[in-house]
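Two proteins follow. First one:
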Amino acid sequence: MNVQIQTSGTFDNKSDPDWWRGAVIYQVYPRSFRDSNGDGIGDLAGITERLPYIASLGVDALWISPFFASPMKDFGYDVSNYRDVDPMFGTLGDFDRLLTNAHESGLRVMIDLVLSHTSDQHLWFAESRKNASNPKSDWYVWADPKPDGTPPNNWLSVFGGSAWHWESRRQQYYLHNFLTTQPDLNLHSTDVQNELLDITRFWLDRGVDGFRLDTINFYMHDEALRDNPPLSPDLRNAIIAPQVNPYNHQDHLYDKNHPDNLAFLRRLRAVMEPYGAAAVGEVGDARRGLEIMAQYTTGDDLMHMCYAFELLANDCPTAEDVLSIMTRLDNVASDSWPCWAFSNHDTVRHATRWDLPLGGLKTMATLMMCWRGSACIYQGEELGLTEADVAFEDLKDPYGIEFWPGFKGRDGCRTPMVWEIRDEFAGFGTTKPWLPVSPAQIEKAVDRQEEDPEAILHHYRHAIAFRRNHPTLKTGKQVGMAVTDGVLSFTRVGSGKEIFCAFNLANETNPVELPEGEWIPLGAELGAVSELSGKRLALGPWQLVIAAKP
């Protein structure tokens, strides 16, 4: 592959503590990125091999999904040892080499910390489940049954069924917001908090630059164990499996989003601060995501940034949708810092969800690089990959197996990265991979797109470089957002510059009017209007205009 590294060098997070503002973060799902040893599973050494490609995108940081020791019931999101690498991914030495090479390539590294729950194979849980008097008896959420033996309340698991599982040794139920093999930690315990903060220091001392915090709003629960109230059908708008999962029938007031979580997040931020590290939290809430994101990122003592699920929805956001989302965010906390994502390892790829033409995908990528906030790109998104069709007999995701056929699970967005079109396994490895390679995705392999100047891969590079070359787009204010005839427009102001952006998010031609004053067109390499004649322009379907004041 003809890959040119566009950024290299070293950096000091302590002297640049705001490096994360406006950063573009590339998410790698390690099982599916690159298999270096021929066992069919991606690994850390495989990521290291492909660092030149990641660096060539011009991104600022790399987010690696969990690689810790784990029985892999939820593919790494069930941790059995936070301080070690699972052998299928390599060793701590492999991680150190990845980290060193990434830094030499100009890439910061963020790792995925799962602090809300562990695996049931973790030594902590092995001790906690023995009885109610051992030193770790309160490290997990235990509760007595009701008099009739049923669970203590009506809380439901995201993965289906009750959120409570019976443990005969303690004669109690334990809470699991996800799989029964993922017992929830009790973060109301100071001892648990202290241990999790020590784990955070372990990785910071190793040199990581930050964290993606899984299910950040699930850390604490209502200690009174009050029932969640029902949610009316017209308010059920969950992103994943909305029609088949009874989890969406409740208003989740008490099993997550606990106000005491803020105190722990302040402690976590205080641990990261001396290192210049940053965190992005995943806010899993279909109804209050923006409000929680704003709450968790307001000020300078909580989280640096969070992302919610509004842009991970099934329907492509219209201009009006974007305006509504940004307005809501500004109304609840104008100084909070969002991180936006269109796709990730938990959702159907947006090229499929939104069913956009190539021009539409390019325009949405450019829009993400122009509006306020940081951005996450999921591996293969830059290739325009659509969701892979995985047969039931090939499914690995317990979520999909549980709710098939109404919901096919998350395997379709987790299939192997496609590197080489002429290779049997698309350059992922030398043997049959853990999930099948998608024939439709192979047609969009990296080596083919490298040779096509019109490929979406090059568009992503141009859009990321455009953002990097205009600091106003990274950290400037966002003012004057409006929608007229399907065109979304706003102005970014900062670094002594003003940049006007307008995007026609529709399949028909629509007009746009430039603000008063003189403007110089920008972004011709992104498909933006290259000549400004008069104040009123006609934008074709998915066309855009970007202009700067001289």
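Second one, unrelated to the first:
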Amino acid sequence: MKRFLSVLLVLALLLGVTSFSVRAQDYRDLPPRLLVWQDTLFGLIDGSGKTVLPCEYEELLTYNDMAYPEGYIIAKRNGLCGVLDWNGRPILPYRYDARPKPIANSGGLFVVCGDDRFGGVVNSKGDTVVPFRYLNLSEFGYFDFGKTGSPPLLIYSVEKTTNNGETSSNRTKRKQILSGLLDLNGREVLAPVYKNLFCGDNAIIVTDTNDYEGVMDFKGEWIRPISPLYTYDNYYDDFYVSIKERRTRLEGLISDDGNIVLPIEYQEVRPLYSTKGLIEAKDRSGLWGLMDTHFRVLIPHRYTELNALGELGDSYYFYGVMRDGRVEIIDTAGRVVAMDTTIHFDNDNLPYLYPLVYVDSAWRLVDPMGKLLPQRYSEASNYWSSTLMSVATDSLHHGIVDLWGNVVVPLRYVEADADGDDVILARCPSGKVEVFNGKGRKLLSCWGAHREENVLYVANKKGMWAIADSRTGKRLSRYYYIWLGVNSSSAETCWAVYDTNNRLGYVNARGREIIPCSLDEGRARTVWEEQIYIFHDCTCGELIYGFKLPNGRSSRPKRGC
């Protein structure tokens, strides 16, 4: 009997460990969910093209990342919203006028805030956990709450009437919105007396009604009390908070216990998000240097400008501008690997990534051994790949080369770009797109292509999209109207267009139809924050479109474009 119980205990422990492991990795293992459009309603398919939800919903919104490892789907049907799990099974019934929003790492709690701006919290059974009486109730911040060791918090607002002025003769009344914090049981963590609360990865920046600032932890305890002497900024990606002296405008850094770990003696201190663990700092003389998170000096303060150039292998490179205007390329050990290099900037004022350099009015490639290769190009970039370069000799001859200058895709296209190291998209003069793998083997031809994470979208001549295998080129689904970028903030640019009946539709950046002109503008789902009102080089076929102008009017419809 004891042996039997021991075996059961071991099995229980193994199951517990396995269950925990699965829960911890669910958000990585969950298959993609792709939003598709058909007959004016939305549905979902997975990355293999299999239907998860039929096109029967007025709205669908997915949540799936580290903060939402369970994978939630917010659905709207017959004008009411509910919640489904990642496989489309119901969690909350369709009873809410506003979209429920899952609370990160809360074990199945949802914030619901209606049109009246008053919100509450419900659990996965639909029971009310926090009453619906708080103004502008929402989850506080967007970060991994597990790092703090504290449960998530909720921010809410109250409208208070305050006095403005010091003396009774000039005192006036005005309304002011003030913020406070609740825990997930509705208990008050911070009273609603603060003008602003800014949530970072490891602390809360608190601003009072006098615009003075302090720093709190997630239990509401002071790390640095409110003071008129300093301002703070919590943008240091989970390790430090910036502190700035109001009088001198000099900066330093504090740790999560409030101690100053980098003295307040720098004109500017900034982290490098693309090179985590490195900090650039400008000293009192206006010169930049580089240090690590333990404040060891990697590159001394000798540059008027210092910026990361990206990755080459496992090493990071920077370009530094000397006082006399000369440019040096430096690694993180402070070694100068190239000198007198003319750095070229693109239209967004971002430097092209090393090993591409612009010298003598042409682009040249520096191979991994530091040798300047003889080939000269009129255009070159490697934004999306660490091993492949998009190059061109003129506007009609674009192709792809590798780090050693070897031609991977011939220079015979009007456009060619590497999406990572394994997918290449090249556009022919006819408008067709050819898709290659990272070694230059052709996978397929189509009329539009877009890669989102591990999913490859391809379009037919009608502008409808399907899913294809990015390794073999095999099409995995039938053609739908797909909202590209549904699982990412980097959605493909699209434009609103109208037919002669003033019905709304969408076309992509190439002018190809994503959604036909079948929508009533009042019911249209706005996915992209910005609309572009004028576009070129579009091929809309026989549809008649008018442009929506910034003043709200539509221009005269045009056949084609």
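SUMMARY FIELD: The chain has one helix and 49 strands. Residues 397 and 514 are 29 Å apart (CA to CA).
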